[in-house]
Structure formats: structure tokens, C-alpha cells
Amino acid sequence: MDTILNRYESSGKGAKYRSVVGAIRSALEDGALRVEERLPPVRELAWALGITPGTVARAYTVLTDEGVLRAEVGRGTFVASPAGPETPPDILWQQHTAPEETDLVSLFSAKLPDMGQVAMIRDGLRRLADRPAADLLNYPSRAGFASARRAVVRWLEDTPLGPLDQEDIVLSHGGQNGISLVMQAVLRGRRPVVLLEELNYVGFRRAAELLRADVVGVPMDAFGIIPEALEDLVRRHEAQLLCTSPEMHNPTGLFTPLERRQAIAEVARRTGLQVLEDDCYRVGQARELSYRALLPGQSWYVSSISKTITPALRIGFAVAPQERRADLRRVAEHGFFGLARPLADLTEDILSRDETPKIMARVREELGRYIRAAVNVLGTHDLVWRADMPFLWLHLPSGWRAGAFCQAAEAQGVQVRAADEFALRDGFAPHAIRIGINAQVTLASFEAAMERLRRLLENPPEQIAV
């Protein structure tokens, strides 16, 4: 501890984490810190320096990314060897960056832990350097991406999508871009109408608004969209597309069972409605047939690696009905010629590796630890959760409104989302919040955040009507 304290200079100018980095570098240069020596825990060093834990964590992360330090799960952060033997791929997951320990915990959205995917991606990027020169000189082509699309087919082999060929797939810049591509392929006319669940992923609305489409909410119950209400709205508005998330509904976490999906598919079949299924939030096994399997001529499917491996690469894919795949391909080719070739090659590399399923399993397991911690603290309240769901849906007790609760939570250092953010402008929003699972903070910080939320839930503000 004193080794770093004596070298830390807080001038008040520039970023403080750089001063921490400089102190550690100085200690390494003069031999005060040696290889394999363990650095102080983030919170202890922050207290000693009079700065926030997040500042120290960022300094450790910078030096870990440079290979100067090495973080080990459950043990701490150590001075790394200047140059050691290459780590075998099957144990790369043990050397991920230590989770940040901080008093401000953002639970706006799910944040994945690094369980080996960072090392895998870096290795994949190195492999790209050895690709033929022609791949870096010419425009991308659909034929050149065939192997990447075949890798996507293999990655989706456990998803019940019905008959699937690599020609049905278009690689996209994440799931949001996939949604936009499908809408461009489907929507026609000056003011097309898109139907959404009454509580819905805001990306649906943004994509529809960009295409000058009107959005209409469809009533829901505990099993998802109500088929009778759907049919009425389709006919009343001459709607062209329904956007839905039956496996892992964002934000409520509900699951639409097969019988309800069949009823919705029958409405679509009778009315000619196209269906877009967004499956980006599912991190476990699919539990039922997709709409593409139930309604093969009218259903589109979008997913990505954002909730299972990383959102940073913006790798997603849209799947068309087989008779409409030319429409989807045309939209992508006319819009942006397709992904950059290196990104398509990286997609193939990541999805084809033997260690990828293992890393995904570790990510699910680590998320599960955080989910269990949240349920242990908040489980006595009206909480919707699943072991493979990267967020929680919490109905607030009497005395709390969603907006007021979010403000009170942020004042306590915890950021969550109100149900209002997932409702249409003129739609109904319950007094509920969505809590993203942030596995990039320490489990202790996450549990402390849950405790702060629990105290707020149990102490609603007194409000007297005047």
C-alpha cells in the first residue's frame, strides 16, 4: 500500500486514474513492486488515496489491458510477468479484467462479465491480420460471406426456427440494425402501421419512426399479446407488421407459451400480418417453437451475440422467410453493401470456435450468481426473474411511483429504468422498474445496490392528499 501511496501525486489536474497508473508504473520501474506481487484491493487503495473505487478500478483495468497487471477471479490483481508463455485457450477465461468496485452502480441495462471472450476476441483480431490481401482491398460480397452465414446457422442449430439455410440470413450491425433491415423489407406505403406489445423494447419504436411508420400498442396479459385484441387492431389499422419477443420479453420477462403463439400465428395467417420476433435477450435454451417455425411464410427473426458474448462488436443477424430472403438481402446490399469484411470474418471465427459454447456457459453461470444475489435480497417483493434472464422486473409496492422511485434510487447510487420508458407515449405504464444485471461490478457492490433498493421499497414516501 505505502509503495503506491508514496508515489501518488494528486495535482488536481487531469484524470486521477492516470495518477494511479503513474504511481504503479513508478513502483515497477524502481523495483518496489515485483513480478507476482499482489496489489491492494480496489476499495482499500481508494480509501487510502482519498479517491473513488471506480477510479482505482479504471487504473487497474488500463494496466491489465496492457499486460502490466494480471487479474485473477477471487484472488486479486497481481504484477504480471514481462513475457510469459502463451496461455492455452481453455484457461484464458481465468484472466479476465477484475470487476469494477464502485459506489455508483448502473443497472440501466445488462452488462456481461468477461469469462474469456475478451481474450478470444483479441486472438481473433490477430488472426485477421493473416487474411489474404484481397480481403482488405475489395468490396465485400455476399458470396464471400457464405462461410460466416454457415457459422450462424450452426450457432442457431438449437433454436427451433424451422428449415434454415445460410441464404436466409443477413449479417447485421447488432440486433437493432437487424430490426431496421426487416422493417425496410416489409413495410410499404406512406404511413405503414407497426404493432408492438403495449410494453415494448424501445428499439422497435425508434426503427419504426425512422421509416415514418405509426406504432400502435397491443394489449397484453400474463402470457403475452392477447390474440383477439391483435386481430381487431390489425383490421382496424391495416397493420403490416407485429414486433414481439415471446421467449424473453423485454422488459417484463414474461414467456409466451406455445398455445398462445399458435393463436397469434393463426391471426397473422388470416390477416396477412408479418411477424418480427426479436430474440436478442435470450441467454439460455429456447423453450418453444419460434414464429418462423409456426408461420414460415410470414415470420422474420432477429438475434445477436450482444447478451451472450459481447455487445461491443455489434454482430447480429436477421433471418427471413425463405420466400422473402431476396427482399432482405436487397435491403442490406442497397443500404450498406454488407458488413465490413474483417467483421464478417471475425463473426465466423468467434461462432466457429470450440471454446465459444464454454464461454457462453460461463457467462450464464456468472450472471446466475448475480441473479441469485438479487433474488435473495428482493425476493419478498413482487419480482419477476429467471435464472437465464439478464434483468429483473419489479412491481413497486403501494406508496411508490416508478419515476419517484428511480430518482430516489439514483440518489442512493443505483440507476434503474422506470416502466414508463417501455410504454408508448399514450400507453399505460405500471408502477414497475427494470433492473439490469451488471456483472461488471463486484458481487459485493451489486449486493449492496440491491440492499439499497430493498430499503427504499420498504420505506415509501408518505404522501398526503390535499
Radius of gyration: 24 Å
Largest sheet properties: 7 strands, mixed
- What percentage of the residues does DSSP assign to strands (E)? 5-15%
Q: Structural class, judged by helices and strands?
A: alpha/beta
Compute the average pLDDT: 90
Helix count, DSSP H or I runs of 4 or more residues: 16
**Annotated CATH architecture of the largest domain:** 3-Layer(aba) Sandwich
Number of domains: 3
Got a strand count? Answer: 17
What gross morphology would you assign?
globular
Percentage of helical residues?
25-40%
> Low-confidence parts lasting 5 or more residues at pLDDT below 50?
84-97
Tell me the CATH superfamily of the largest domain: Type I PLP-dependent aspartate aminotransferase-like (Major domain)
Give your account of this protein's structure:
The protein is of the alpha/beta class and 466 residues long. It has 3 domains: 84 residues, Arc Repressor Mutant, subunit A (Orthogonal Bundle), CATH 1.10.10.10; 199 residues, 3-Layer(aba) Sandwich (Aspartate Aminotransferase, domain 2); 102 residues, Aspartate Aminotransferase, domain 1 (Alpha-Beta Complex), CATH 3.90.1150.10. It is globular, with a radius of gyration of 24 Å. Helices cover 40% and strands 14% of the residues. The chain contains 16 helices and 17 strands. The N and C termini lie far apart (58 Å).
